[in-house]
Amino acid sequence: MEDETMLPPQVASYLKIKTQTLAKWRLIGYGPVYFNAGRSIRYRRSAVDEWIKNQQISNTSMNPIRRQGRP
């Protein structure tokens, strides 16, 4: 069975984010792995699902500490 490919609007809907957020993620190297098919950006559903799986935090000690800026 061939892995389904998805366009950015489909991935954004699947992740419940805006397409602009997904585009920003691509620029900074964050988010699911994507590839170019001609002039079109595509994602494999398996890559999106794997990325989601890797985002899971099993306990709070794995959560990065966020420092507040100066007041």
UniProtKB/TrEMBL annotation:
* InterPro entries assigned to the protein according to its UniProt record, in alphabetical order: DNA-bd_dom_put_sf, HTH_17
Question: Which ranges carry the Helix-turn-helix domain?
Answer: 9-55
Q: Name one Pfam family in it.
A: HTH_17
Name the chain's protein: Helix-turn-helix protein
